[in-house]
Design brief:
There is one protein chain. The strands form 2 sheets. Strands 1-2-3-4-9-7-6-5 form an 8-stranded antiparallel sheet, with helices on one face. A two-stranded antiparallel sheet has the order 8-10. It is 26% helix and 31% strand. The termini are far apart. It is built from 6 helices and 10 strands, in the order H-H-H-E-E-E-E-H-E-E-E-E-E-H-H-E. It has 2 domains: 87 residues, no CATH class; 112 residues, no CATH class. The chain is an alpha+beta fold.
Length: 218
């Protein structure tokens, strides 16, 4: 608790100096001096209670407050970041914290690599819509982390796409380390068909560069 309090005082000082332009990767990826990932500022998937999590969130200087909603056996604790357009939520199922989901602002893939290094594997797809979006999921399952990035497709959709450090992170998932199937089904709520498609077309980390990742399915 003393370590957490010291860290929070440091964050307050940083934010006071930075004002409304603060963009610290640690507010999204956590601070290892407080607790190692997937723990996030003392909130630990699989261990922290709803009451503990709400109390911790309300103590963080970069959080504006929390909103808790419950439907059947699922409780969602939602928050917004102070000064920046970003948010997060903590999902409990049957009282157990299953995932921390963070939607960052101005967090780059390079910031993620500075903390986590190379992922174990990746999957890529195109998200349909008025403007097609190229999406890549980076799996750090042994660490309990999945990072999702989104970009505009380069060239023809049949061409390999780029993975570069400037790509923007669209979402971060923190959870108890597990296998891919459990993450997709139990944590993300995907269908068995979806799990099979992702598993069959999973790719090893290709490294950074242009034309390095093949997009397998829409």
């Amino acid at each position: 608790m003393k370590r957490l309090s010291k860290c929070l005082l440091t964050l307050v000082s940083v934010f006071s100096l930075a004002g409304c332009n603060v963009q610290e990767p640690s507010v999204y990826l956590g601070d290892d001096s407080v607790c190692p990932i997937p723990c996030w500022y003392g909130i630990t998937p699989g261990r922290s209670t709803i009451e503990e999590s709400v109390s911790t969130l309300n103590s963080l200087p970069f959080i504006t407050g929390t909103k808790t909603t419950t439907s059947k056996n699922v409780t969602d604790v939602f928050w917004r970041y102070r000064w920046i357009t970003a948010d997060g939520s903590i999902i409990f199922k049957d009282g157990k914290l299953i995932v921390i989901r963070i939607t960052p602002s101005d967090l780059s893939l390079g910031d993620v690599f500075n903390k986590l290094g190379s992922p174990e594997s990746v999957s890529a797809w195109y998200e349909p819509g008025d403007l097609v979006t190229y999406v890549v999921s980076l799996y750090y399952l042994d660490k309990g982390v999945v990072v999702i990035i989104a970009d505009r497709p380069q060239g023809d959709l049949s061409d390999p796409q780029r993975i570069t450090k400037d790509l923007s992170v669209s979402q971060i998932h923190l959870f108890e380390p597990t296998d891919l199937g459990t993450f997709l089904k139990e944590i993300s709520g995907k269908s068995e068909e979806y799990v099979v498609r992702v598993t069959e077309q999973l790719q090893p980390w290709p490294g950074f560069g242009d034309d390095v990742i093949h997009v397998n399915f829409p």
